[in-house]
Design brief:
The complex is a heterotrimer of chains A (81), B (376) and C (434). Chain A has 81 residues and is mainly beta. In chain A, 9% of the residues lie in helices and 35% in strands. Chain A has a single domain, classed as Ubiquitin-like (UB roll). Chain A has one helix and seven strands. The longest helix of chain C has 17 residues. In chain C, strands 1, 2, 3, 4, 5, 6 and 19 form a seven-stranded mixed sheet that branches. Chain C has a five-stranded parallel sheet with strand order 8-15-9-10-11, covered by helices on one side. The chains are: A mainly beta (81), B alpha/beta (376), C alpha/beta (434). Chains A and C meet through helix 1 and strand 4 of A and strand 8 and helix 3 of C.
Chain lengths: 81, 376, 434
């Protein structure tokens, strides 16, 4: 039985099971991970860290591949950079 | 495409060849361009795409300034993908000795009508907060800019085609003879004048050209809008470009319109292979981090190399090649090919059509090489 | 600035999937100093993602063997460059590792091939393996409506997995023809374990519509996917869904092998009977030598590990098994070949290069990858052509560029590391049990 933790995605509090990735948190929050260079919303595709569509800013650090990063309690994720 | 005679046939569809084709076609000449690969596939694809005035010598200043004006006049016609940005250059001074150089340059440019602004440490920090603290100041040259060279070369070539120029890509040259370009897998091209604008490859086509390859490395990051506003160059860049025989790196970064940061620069003599040299890359990036520690955490997306075409006196060769008046050169631009491409095209075309060049052409004439060996 | 560490191994294995685990375990059991490196935070690769601690008995077994033999596990590290022969540089979350080796085993696996079609870039359109990876990484899929599309046995495995976790799998759309699959089914009969797998999958997928000659035509939605239109035996059908799991088979991850200078043929790393590449100290096992599935990867991994530990006879004992499994791999290849219609799916406006938003119409005029790249920026983004490369290879028959460092985007400070300059912080490796 895994425990739950909370991260924020664009200010929205999201509860995830521990062991969930940040990409999962973004999808649960209904937030596209990034906006493409021509303004389209994008989300994770490959799930393995090579497509770069899941990039988000985590605690101020941009271009983090969220599908490869585990959620930590209190993480601040922004997709609107 | 038939092999009927042209007025001018140009070898090389890089920025210089494209600019020459554009200039000559617009003057009504029948122009052909041939390249063994695609448009801008040599140094044009590899370089930083900066448009800068340089004061290494009067001749260099004259050509870069002339050419910069031409780019400014052209900018409103450039399509979006050429990404022309007049971001300006800041020559960065780390100490008092370099500040003295800032003052010298400022005076030099002031005398010649180039707008500059000397920056003290505080102002520099305001303009570029990601430079490490402790810089002495710098010189801002606001009229300098950057663009994306492969698209610029394509634009110029397309304009040439609109004026009737014919372009053959993927076509390698076997040899150049008087009035003819022999191609490897296609009928020869005949023209009254032939222009060798093949950059680092030009000595392969014209024996006796004193052009050496000067390898450079570059790295580009992911998008970080606002990290950098101006092109930044260390004043030591001049020492690097000056060096005639040894490997060197110099801090030179550039903001692309995409928000990516382009990081350079490096120079090597005698390196013939195009593989990325990890030691050079590391050295170059270490130097860059010394000036901008914030670069450390940026994500690098690609690295690549290119070969500049370097002449012994660091000025390009623009004009007839002594041995054969029908063969002209437009090559040897080292790190200033993008900047001086338009000016090169003008003075080359002037020499072909007999028009009066707008700047003195003597310093760039290939015949200077025969007359004297210029030592630096 | 992150710390740097320098470590030295007899055998270094890159990739923690089945091939890597098997290679590392076998080599370590031969009492050589072995390390296994993977960029995920735990071992298992894609197919055994989060499975080494429980869900897959095979994964558990191999991991236990590897650990019992004293292998050094280096997870969360991304190999990005070879500064000099015998040395690799790998980047971690906030540090850099210099890894020295006598022998190297490249077990870098494969990635999915994505083909563009209108709407493919909408959020919640993911790869087939991609959606499965997301679910394994905590994405709730219970009662979500999923369409699975593309090609390859992966579709069935993914559909079964999703269903097991509560998803409503609305349809599986396989682009191969019924006859191709029938021939493949016959090949399966020659592989008992595959047969069992096949039957298990059939049971797991009972009641799920399975369409052949079928592919996605259009994905629709505002901010996220809302429905997908599929073509099925020539007719269109629109299905409302929450996720589209779509992948067109797998392509080998050959970038590291390429960087090292190994010969690559038809997109696969060339190896000899002992899984040795054209570089004598570099071996390659699993999907990079040719897409062939998990069992083949396990056998190739073992051969590579034993060969690297100079146990030729023991390696040779596995050749027969490998030969059988390779026949299966070839049948796979034939059955799931991409059909020509898939080249017509993209419309002029469909984005092909997702990193730089380059549409199909801008690309189709170019004769080569390089020309297109220079003019449009296709392939210049952070995916380094991993997504658009296989797609454009299929669409336009372009050949990819040469590989340059960094083979994954890494921090400037990582690329700035000079090999040998790092403080030698040795992590003592416990020797194998022999």
């Amino acid at each position: 039985m895994s425990s739950l933790l909370t991260v924020s995605v664009n200010g929205i509090a999201v509860e995830v099971a521990s062991g969930a990735t940040v990409a999962v948190a973004a999808v649960l929050a209904g937030q596209a991970c990034r906006t493409s260079v021509s303004g389209q919303p994008r989300g994770p595709v490959c799930g393995m860290g090579i497509c770069f569509e899941c990039r988000v800013t985590i605690d101020g650090k941009p271009h983090c591949r969220s599908c490869q990063i585990l959620c930590q309690p209190g993480m601040e994720v922004r997709t609107d950079g | 495409m038939s092999d009927s005679a042209y007025d001018v046939a140009i070898v090389g569809a890089g920025i210089v060849g494209a600019a020459c084709a554009d200039e000559l076609a617009r003057r009504g000449l029948r122009v052909a361009v041939v390249d063994r690969d695609t448009v801008g596939s040599g140094a044009t694809a590899a370089g930083m795409g900066h448009i800068v005035v340089m004061d290494d010598s009067e001749a260099q200043f004259a050509l870069t300034r002339y050419s910069q004006h031409l780019w400014q006049q052209l900018r409103s016609e450039l399509p979006d993908d050429v990404e022309y940005e007049q971001c300006g250059t800041i020559w960065v001074a780390t100490d008092e000795e370099e500040m003295a150089e800032v003052r010298r340059k400022r005076e030099y440019y002031r005398e010649r009508g180039v707008a500059t602004e000397a920056l003290d440490a505080a102002t520099l920090r305001n303009l570029e907060p990601n430079l490490r603290p402790g810089m002495a100041g710098g010189l801002l040259v606001p009229e300098d800019g950057v663009l994306y060279p492969p698209c610029a070369a394509r634009f110029l070539l397309e304009r040439a085609q609109q004026h009737g120029a014919q372009v053959r890509l993927g076509c390698s040259v076997a040899h150049l003879r008087q009035g003819r370009i022999a191609l490897n897998d296609a009928p020869e091209i005949r023209a009254e004048f032939i222009v060798n604008a093949a950059g680092a490859g030009s000595p392969d086509l014209t024996a006796g050209l004193e052009i050496k390859k000067r390898k450079g490395h570059l790295v580009i990051t992911d998008r970080y809008p606002g990290f950098l506003r101006h092109q930044l160059v260390e004043l030591g860049y001049l020492k690097s470009a000056h060096s005639v025989s040894s490997d060197s790196v110099a801090f030179n970064v550039q903001p692309r319109r995409t928000g990516q940061v382009l990081i350079g620069s490096s120079r090597q003599y005698g390196a013939e292979h195009k593989e990325v040299d990890h030691a050079m890359l590391a050295w170059m990036l270490q130097r860059a981090q010394e000036y901008m520690p914030g670069l450390a955490g940026l994500s690098t997306v690609r690295s690549w190399t290119g070969f500049r075409a370097a002449t012994p006196d660091k000025l390009p060769l623009i004009g007839p090649w002594s041995a054969d008046k029908s063969l002209l050169l437009a090559t040897g631009h080292e790190g200033l090919g993008i900047t001086t491409s338009l000016g090169t095209a003008r003075i080359l075309a002037d020499q072909i059509t007999g028009a009066k060049p707008e700047i003195p052409v003597e310093p760039y004439l290939p015949s200077r090489m025969a007359r004297e060996h210029v030592h630096v | 600035m992150g710390s740097e560490s320098r470590q030295r191994f007899d055998v270094l294995v890159i990739g923690g999937g089945p091939a890597g685990l098997a290679a590392a375990a076998r080599a370590a059991e031969c009492a050589v100093r072995v390390a296994i490196v993977d960029d995920n935070f735990s071992l298992g690769g894609q197919i055994w993602r989060r499975a080494t601690e429980g869900p897959s008995p095979q994964a558990v077994r191999w991991t236990e063997r590897l650990r019992a033999a004293g292998t050094t596990e280096l997870c969360g590290l991304r190999v990005f460059d070879q500064p000099q022969p015998g040395v690799l540089l790998a980047e971690g979350a906030d540090d850099i590792h210099e890894l020295r080796y006598q022998k190297l085993i490249v077990a870098t696996g494969a990635r999915e091939r994505f083909l563009p079609f209108p709407g493919w870039a909408l959020p919640n359109v993911m790869g087939a393996g991609g959606l499965q990876a997301m679910v394994k990484s905590g994405l709730p899929i219970d009662r979500k409506r999923v369409v699975v599309a593309g090609t390859g046995p992966l579709l069935l495995a993914v559909a079964a997995y999703l269903r097991e976790h509560g998803a409503e799998v609305l349809m599986i759309c396989e682009q191969a023809s019924r006859s191709s699959l029938a021939r493949f089914g016959v090949a399966l009969l020659r592989q008992p374990s595959k047969m069992v797998q096949g039957l298990r999958l059939r049971k797991a997928l009972a009641g799920v519509p399975f369409a052949t000659n079928s592919w996605p035509v259009n994905a629709q939605g505002g901010q996220v996917l809302e429905s997908v239109t599929i073509s099925r035996e020539g007719k269109s059908e629109t299905i409302a869904c929450d996720y589209l799991a779509c992948g067109f088979h797998l392509v080998p991850n050959t970038e590291l092998a390429s960087l090292l200078g190994c010969r690559i043929e038809s997109g696969c790393v060339r190896v000899d009977d002992f899984q040795r590449t054209t570089l004598p100290e570099v071996f390659c096992a699993g999907e990079p030598t040719g897409i062939g599935g998990m069992e083949l990867a396990l056998v190739e991994g073992q051969i590579a590990g034993l060969a690297a530990a100079e146990r030729a006879a023991e390696a040779g004992a596995l050749f027969g098994e490998r030969k059988k499994l390779r026949a299966f791999a070839q049948a796979l290849d034939r059955a799931f070949r991409l059909r020509a219609e898939l080249r017509q799916l993209a419309s002029a406006a469909t984005i092909v290069c997702r990193c730089e938003d380059v549409p199909y119409s801008r690309l189709s005029q170019y004769a080569s990858w390089r020309a297109a790249k220079l003019q449009t920026r296709c392939g210049m983004g952070p995916c380094q052509g991993r997504i658009c490369g296989p797609a454009t290879q299929f669409l336009f028959e372009w050949n990819p560029d040469s590989v340059r460092p960094p083979i994954f985007p890494v921090r400037v400070e990582s690329l700035a590391v000079t090999a040998g300059a790092a403080e030698p912080v040795h992590q003592e490796v416990t020797g194998g049990q022999g």
